[in-house]
């Protein structure tokens, strides 16, 4: 009854499509997530990340497409999937008018844990919430709410965690702690699918997928995604970068111009055209040009720009 | 800090009694939430008490000083002493004395008086001869409660009042006949009908609203998404949400009946246990209907409106406001589909007539059927996904 597939794949879906009111939110999406890996789900707002996650845990039925989650069919076995999946919603969805302890006991009872009180007590201790167990969940700070939500998800020992933007609005320290926890959970064999907007978080994932306007545009390890983008990036430092940033966009071969603090990233897929376009500024005094490998953010911003042209 | 991982001990998961465990989880959660919601908690007690007081005293069962007119066609000592006796009951206050039938009729019709007493010509002489003449008492029964209680006690009151009247002596029976005429509303509703009726009406209102909000509240607070992602079935959610309020309803019913007996002197002639049992059935039926409403509507405002849509016909067509038998056939058919109709029959029959389960089995079955229908609709309407 543990739905293990022989090949060590936790999520395996093909051709998922979902529309709301005639608008296609997820289009022909296929993906595979290895067991015990942390899979990052990236993409702009409204790109279909939440919808995909909801399809995976049986909260939405896809219009077409098929696949398995933990070896169970996502269409037929939603109830079995729910037993082994912990889903952390984007919006805090525990009961605000229940205390920390009561919320955890509720979850423990729903999943049929034999000793619900004991399980809740242990989790409170592990979350570092001792002394706050009688505090109402709604009165906790953002970081604590998020810890509690993760605790509630992991309480029934799930095999797969689906985390929908778990760190939105959480301070950097709490975010780092959160990611340490996720890595530790994955080390224990848990598969984690996590959606995020943060690049530093994406780089902490074993694999990532980039989704925009319902289309899966890139996936693989961070290095693979960067390599596959075939993007050439020049980092420019020096004076009057603002003027340069205003003039370069639109020139042949220049796909993206993005300021990064005191430097400017100029990227393009067609190296020859890019170099021809930037030639007039290459030797300008006061500007220092350096060819570098693109960052993940460069790749995503470029992908996002491209997808907007293609799908809108 | 990263402590979540330190040897998460594998807690044993039990597959047995899953249904009961999950329903229980939901039930405990609902109870805690109810306990925390101070306003709702206060409503549970305040609502029935306040309503019973307002309804109960507004429809005062012992009206006093009802404006009355007398059509005096004979000015005799006996006529005077009868009027005096009537006035002494404190029911009537004679503000008009007329000598013409048309004036008499108009006073009643215009609503200037609620009662009219007609003492016919030759009244005293007829009494002395032992002819038992008729004393006509006409009542404006558009206010049936006032009319019927005054009319009902008329005979004995007048007789008692006249007992010591030396003029007549102490006759073995009434020396004259009182002919009561309830005008405009011949089927006057008795006042005792109303307090038991209030039990049903108040329960309908409070129970309906409690559960009508229950599912929409989860949706609006965003907790539904998380709840749906957990392995709980629609039936389990429903039982978890209904059962705490069965207890709440029971407390309310107890309060209302207690006040009814204590303050309004309504008797409970039948079996109290049977009353409690059938009240519980009625409470559960209303909760199921409220819960069904909450699975149909989109938000809490709609839930309130839909509850009102159900509540109004319940009041109007159940026999609470108007005598059921007096309604047109279509209204009676609608009425039969309302739980309140059946419960009113049950509660009135048990409290006032001492009815047994044998007498009430049709209405009890109807309640159970309505409850089942509501539950089936609710469970099938409950959306297990966010589609």
Automatic annotation (TrEMBL), chain A:
Write out the GO MF terms: ATP binding; ATP hydrolysis activity
InterPro entries per record = AAA+_ATPase, ABC_transporter-like_ATP-bd, ABC_transporter-like_CS, P-loop_NTPase
Sorted keywords for this record are:
ATP-binding, Nucleotide-binding
* Entries under Gene3D superfamilies matching the protein: P-loop containing nucleotide triphosphate hydrolases (3.40.50.300)
Provide the ABC transporter domain boundaries: 11-238
| Summary of the function given for this chain in its UniProt record | Involved in beta-(1-->2)glucan export. Transmembrane domains (TMD) form a pore in the inner membrane and the ATP-binding domain (NBD) is responsible for energy generation.
**What is the similarity comment for this entry?**
Belongs to the ABC transporter superfamily.
Its recorded name reads ABC transporter ATP-binding protein
Q: Which organism is it from?
A: Bradyrhizobium hipponense
From TrEMBL, chain B:
The main place the protein resides is membrane
Q: Which PROSITE patterns match?
A: ABC_TM2
Its subcellular locations are: Cell membrane
Q: Has the keyword Transferase been applied to this entry?
A: no
The similarity annotation says: Belongs to the ABC-2 integral membrane protein family.
Top-rank taxon of the source lineage equals: Bacteria
Q: Output the InterPro entries linked to this UniProt entry.
A: ABC-2_transporter_component (IPR051449), ABC2_TM (IPR013525), ABC2_TM_bact-type (IPR047817)
**GO CC annotation terms, alphabetical:** plasma membrane
Alphabetic keyword roster: Cell membrane, Membrane, Transmembrane, Transmembrane helix, Transport
Indicate how the chain sits in the lipid bilayer: Multi-pass membrane protein
One MF annotation (Gene Ontology) recorded for this entry: ABC-type transporter activity
Q: Specify the species.
A: Bradyrhizobium hipponense
Q: What is this protein called?
A: ABC transporter permease
What residue intervals traverse the membrane?
39-59, 194-215, 242-266, 272-297, 309-331, 364-382
Domain ABC transmembrane type-2, by residue range, is 151-385
A matching Pfam family: ABC2_membrane_3
Q: Does the keyword Acyltransferase apply?
A: no
């Amino acid at each position: 009854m543990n739905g293990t597939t022989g090949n060590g794949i936790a999520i395996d879906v093909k051709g998922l499509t979902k529309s709301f009111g005639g608008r296609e939110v997820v289009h022909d999406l296929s993906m595979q997530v290895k067991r015990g890996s942390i899979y990052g789900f990236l993409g702009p707002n409204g790109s279909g990340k939440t919808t995909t996650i909801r399809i995976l845990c049986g909260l939405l039925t896809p219009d077409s497409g098929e696949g398995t989650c933990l070896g169970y069919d996502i269409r037929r076995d939603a109830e079995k999937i729910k037993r082994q999946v912990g889903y952390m919603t984007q919006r805090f969805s525990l009961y605000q008018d229940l205390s920390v302890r009561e919320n955890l006991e509720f979850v423990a009872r729903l999943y049929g844990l034999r000793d619900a009180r004991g399980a809740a007590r242990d989790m409170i201790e592990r979350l570092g919430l001792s002394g706050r167990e009688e505090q109402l969940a709604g009165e906790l700070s953002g970081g604590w709410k998020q810890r509690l939500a993760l605790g509630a998800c992991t309480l029934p020992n799930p095999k797969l965690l689906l985390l929908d933007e778990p760190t939105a609005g959480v301070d950097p320290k709490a975010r780092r702690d959160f990611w340490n926890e996720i890595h530790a959970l994955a080390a224990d064999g848990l598969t984690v699918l996590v959606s995020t907007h943060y690049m530093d978080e994406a780089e902490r994932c074993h694999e990532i997928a980039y989704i925009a306007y319902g289309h899966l545009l890139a996936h693989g390890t961070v290095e693979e995604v960067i390599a596959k983008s075939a993007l050439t990036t020049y980092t420019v430092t020096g004076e009057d970068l603002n003027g340069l940033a205003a003039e370069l966009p639109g020139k042949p071969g220049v796909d993206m111009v993005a300021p990064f603090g005191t430097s400017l990233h100029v990227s393009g897929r067609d190296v020859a055209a890019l170099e021809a376009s930037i030639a007039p500024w290459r030797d300008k005094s006061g500007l220092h040009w350096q060819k570098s490998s693109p960052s993940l953010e460069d790749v995503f911003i470029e992908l996002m720009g491209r997808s907007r042209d293609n799908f809108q | 800090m990263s402590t979540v991982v330190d040897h998460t001990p594998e807690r044993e998961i039990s597959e047995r009694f899953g249904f009961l465990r999950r329903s229980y989880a939901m039930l405990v959660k609902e109870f805690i939430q109810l306990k925390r919601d101070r306003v709702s908690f206060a409503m549970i007690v305040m609502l029935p008490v306040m309503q019973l007081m307002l309804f109960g005293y507004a429809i005062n069962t012992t009206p006093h000083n009802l404006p009355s007119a007398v059509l005096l066609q004979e000015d005799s000592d006996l006529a005077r002493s009868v009027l005096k006796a009537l006035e002494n009951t404190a029911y009537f206050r004679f503000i008009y004395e007329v000598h013409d039938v048309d004036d008499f009729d108009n006073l009643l019709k215009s609503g200037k008086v609620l009662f009219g007493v007609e003492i016919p010509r030759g009244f005293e002489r007829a009494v002395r001869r032992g002819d038992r003449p008729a004393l006509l008492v006409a009542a404006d029964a558009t206010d049936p409660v006032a009319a019927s209680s005054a009319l009902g006690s008329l005979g004995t009151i007048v007789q008692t009042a006249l007992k010591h009247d030396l003029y007549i002596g102490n006759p073995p029976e009434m020396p004259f006949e009182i002919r009561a005429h309830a005008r405009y509303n011949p089927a006057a509703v008795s006042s005792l009908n109303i307090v038991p009726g209030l039990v049903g009406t108040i329960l309908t209102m409070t129970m309906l609203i409690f559960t009508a909000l229950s599912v929409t509240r989860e949706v609006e607070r965003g907790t539904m998404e998380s709840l749906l992602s957990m392995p709980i079935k629609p039936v389990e959610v429903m039982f978890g949400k209904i059962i705490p309020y069965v207890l709440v309803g029971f407390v309310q019913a107890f309060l209302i009946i207690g006040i009814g007996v204590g303050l309004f002197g309504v008797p409970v002639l039948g079996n109290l246990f049977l009353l409690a049992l059938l009240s519980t059935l009625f409470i559960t039926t209303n909760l199921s209907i409220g819960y069904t409403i909450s699975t149909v509507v989109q938000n809490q405002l709609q839930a309130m409106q839909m509850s009102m849509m159900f509540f109004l016909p319940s009041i109007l067509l159940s026999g609470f406001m108007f005598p059921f038998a007096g309604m047109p056939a279509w209204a009676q058919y609608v009425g039969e589909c309302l739980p309140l109709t059946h419960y009113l029959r049950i509660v009135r029959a048990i409290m006032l007539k001492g009815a047994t389960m044998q007498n009430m089995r049709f209405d009890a079955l109807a309640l159970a059927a309505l409850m089942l229908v509501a539950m089936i609709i609710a469970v099938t309407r409950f959306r297990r996904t966010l589609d």
